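Table 4 source record.
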Amino acid sequence: MMLGSALFSINFAVIRHLGQDLHPFEIVFFRNLFGLLVFIPWLIRAEITSLKPNRPMLLGGRACIQVVAQAFWYASLMLIPLADATALGLVEPIIAAFLAILILREKSTFGRWAVVFIGFIGSLIIVRPGFQDVSIGALYAVLSSVTWAGFALLSKVLTKTDSTLVVVAYPTALVVPLALIPALFVWEVPSLANYGWLIVTGSLASTANFALTKAFKMGDITAVSPIGFTRLLFSAAVGFIVFAEVPAAWVWVGGALIVGAGTYLARLEAQAKNGTDN
């Protein structure tokens, strides 16, 4: 989990570097194009029956959400400090819990609502509306968290009827043409060096996702999930080393609230899975 968090943080710096020359939609296109290549060996070896989607419309909707979420996220990385964007991005599981209660009718408890409220307060502390102008980059980060939360909900619904390979690979394949359409309107031919960086970002993202998957397979969610919040520390370190960014004190205060709320949420989910009282 810590390795995945570190790789994601390094990847954020690569995306910001690419953003100097390329539009977010173009980066989304290439990121998923190279990401799709990773799945080809598994797709070739999989049985035909396991590759048949049971809910193609939901898979298409998930792909559309993925395009929007990635575009918002990449845009935020290009406009605000890495630590700020990462801290705001950490509210995604909290928003997902809120949406799961409202949309999927999952169990509603005082603890879950408290987590949502604390996470919301943490986000407000980072953005501080009324005390400073809310930047468009911060708004993009929040919108990305909301759309990623919807993405997570669709993932949960789809995994009940489709294989993990179908749920992950099909939307990635659909994102390639979906992202290409808007990318064509802002297309810039990547330089040879940028093609190299695009391969790097695809490789980093795929390796990080593999590390996270392996972490959840090897350890209990209640023990593993909170370690994922080290992404904030790694992002702050990468931002300082690469871009000389020093996070404001408010980012640490708000981030601490979000991390605390997310850690407590992981404990609640583990308790609910084990059938204990929340």
